[in-house]
Design goal:
With 182 residues, the chain is mostly beta strands. It contains two helices and 13 strands. A hairpin with a 2-residue loop joins β3 and β4.
Length: 182
Amino acid sequence: MNYIQTEIDGLWIIEPRVFYDDRGYFMEAFMETEFQEKVGPVHFIQDNESKSSFGVLRGLHYQKGEHSQAKLVRVIKGRVLDVAVDMRHSSSTFGKYVSVELSEENKRQFFIPRGFAHGFLVLSDEAIFTYKVDNAYAPQSEASVLYSDETIGIQWPISPEQMLLSEKDKKAVTFKDAVYFE
């Protein structure tokens, strides 16, 4: 696999080696020893999957405190714009974000460590999104930052009128009112 460090420390794009032939393809999606050598020690405990249609925006989500989560995300079907926002108050990139297109074609993965808000926007008719997490979901610790917050300034590739959001995501707090990581 090819590990690409982004401009924000801790965020990694991972490109697997894909072997194609007349039957289809084969790839290793995750190898713990290699991941830990390149990225660092992370112990994933759960895999999650979601299916969404065009324009669905899920995020920007994170869990606070001891319930924070690192995530390794990828798309099995379709195409999304995946975004991670640095919520680490002491970081030199605090409030900055990285976005990456993940698709069934490019097979890229995106590693988001603890201390980041995360979200994705579906760009294809449908997308199946899967991710590993290193900590259990704790509803009492969940938090969201407004996807359209001007302080962050995420450049979404479709108009807000085309987006489908949950009520929770529509009512998320602004970045300045969010809970940060130290």
